[in-house]
Design a protein that fits this description.
By secondary structure, the chain is of the alpha+beta class. The chain is 41% helix and 20% strand. The relative contact order is 0.09.
C-alpha cells in the first residue's frame, strides 16, 4: 500500500497530476481543488494516496491531507458511490462545506456536484450523517452555507438567534452541536442557547 507520494509536479491534466519521483512519473487522479493540483508545474508536491484495484484497472487517487483522504474513503463506502463520484463531490466543495451538508442533511447542496442526483445525495446523507460529528467541521463556529439552514426549523432557529444579537458564526456553531434532526425551532433555540453559555 502506498501511503503518500512526494516529488516534483511534472505535469497535470483534466483531473490528474503526474509526480516525478526520482525519474519515475506517477499519475495520480486528484480533486480539482486539491492543493497539489493548484500548484504550478515544477513545484514540490505531496499527496496522501488511496489505491483502487479493479479487474482491468489500477488507479492512484491523491489528496492534500488526511482529512480529504478519510472523506474520500467514507464517500466510496456509500452504496453506489464510486471513486469518480467521490472525486466529483470533493472537487465541488471544501471539506467544511461538505461535512456541514452531510451533518445538516442538505441533499440539495450535494446535488450541485457533477453526476450526483437526488437519490445518491439522499443515500450519502443516510449512510454518513452519523460518521461526521460537528467536531469534524474544522471551521467550527464558521458560517454554515445558507442552504444548510434553508426553510426548516434549524433555519428559523438560526434567524432567531441572530435577531437576539448573536453573529451568524456563533449561531451556526451552536446549532452544529445539536445532533437531533426533528426538533421544533423553539427546541433548537433552547438547546443552542445552552451551547452558547
Amino acid at each position: 500500500m502506498i501511503g503518500f507520494l512526494r516529488g516534483i509536479l511534472a505535469s497535470k491534466g483534466n483531473g490528474y497530476i503526474v509526480i516525478d519521483i526520482n525519474g519515475v512519473g506517477w499519475q495520480v487522479t486528484v480533486p480539482l481543488n486539491t492543493e497539489a493540483y493548484l500548484k504550478p508545474e515544477g513545484s514540490e508536491v505531496m499527496v496522501h494516496t488511496a489505491m483502487v484495484l479493479r479487474e482491468d484497472d489500477v488507479s492512484l487517487y491523491g489528496f492534500s491531507g488526511e482529512g480529504e483522504l478519510d472523506t474520500f474513503r467514507k464517500l466510496t463506502s456509500v452504496t453506489g458511490v464510486g471513486p469518480k463520484a467521490a472525486l466529483s463531490i470533493l472537487s465541488s466543495f471544501s471539506l467544511e462545506e461538505l461535512h456541514q451538508a452531510i451533518v445538516f442533511q442538505d441533499t440539495s447542496a450535494l446535488t450541485r456536484a457533477n453526476g450526483i442526483g437526488k437519490k445518491t445525495a439522499e443515500r450519502i446523507v443516510l449512510e454518513l450523517k452519523d460518521k461526521f460529528s460537528p467536531e469534524d467541521i474544522s471551521g467550527a463556529g464558521a458560517p454554515a452555507p445558507a442552504a444548510a439552514f434553508a426553510s426548516d426549523a434549524r433555519g428559523e432557529a438560526l434567524n432567531a438567534l441572530m435577531a437576539l444579537g448573536y453573529t451568524r458564526g456563533e449561531a451556526s456553531g451552536a446549532l452544529t452541536g445539536i445532533r437531533e434532526q426533528d426538533l421544533t425551532s423553539e427546541e433548537y433555540i433552547k438547546r443552542a442557547l445552552k451551547n452558547l453559555f
